[in-house]
Amino acid sequence: MSVATKYGAGDTWLANCHTRPADVWKAWHSGALAPIVSGAHWLVAETSVSHGMPAAARIREEQRGPVLIDPYGDVAWWLVPLDAAEELADVRQIRMRHAGWTLRCPPSGREMERLQWLWDPNGSGHLTDPAVLAAAFGPGGYRPRTEDQA
């Protein structure tokens, strides 16, 4: 069985976000979290789970990118595009992590060390749009434009 078959396209994509994908597979195979540094493929927007879940519910399924959560520590990490920092800078519930920040990741579909994916990476590289994320944390939540609803 190939690694991609065992873990899936999302895990293959996530491993390929590391400078040495084999290190990710080795960590997961041994039952450990894989440290993946942000900044080459995505940035991390950090929120609390308690604020993030209501916002998450406001985001349509097709607009959701990967979100890693620690429900016990009340922390959620949203994978967002590299240009998201400016757009999310004024959203008080979101703390942007700088490029070079390490996110400790489990493979999709598994909880490891209290961490699990709320929304798994799917292999496409799709990330949460910062405008959608910012609006979801706003008082009225995200509202699609009229032409988007047609």
Radius of gyration of CA atoms, rounded to a whole number = 15 Å
Question: Which strand order does the major sheet show?
Answer: 5-2-4-3-7
Biggest sheet, open or closed, and with what strands and sense? 5 strands, antiparallel
Helix coverage percent: 25-40%
**Approximate strand percentage:** 15-25%
Structural class: alpha+beta
Overall number of strands: 7
Measured between the Cα atoms of the first and last residue, the distance is 44 Å
Mean pLDDT: 89
- Element order: H for helix, E for strand: HHHEEHEEHEEEH
Provide structural commentary.
With 150 residues, this protein is of the alpha+beta class. The protein is built from six helices and seven strands. The chain has helices spanning 3-7, 9-15, 21-29, 49-57, 84-88, 130-137, and strands at residues 34-37, 43-47, 67-70, 75-80, 95-97, 102-105, 116-119. A five-stranded antiparallel β-sheet has the order 5-2-4-3-7. A two-stranded antiparallel ribbon has the order 1-6.
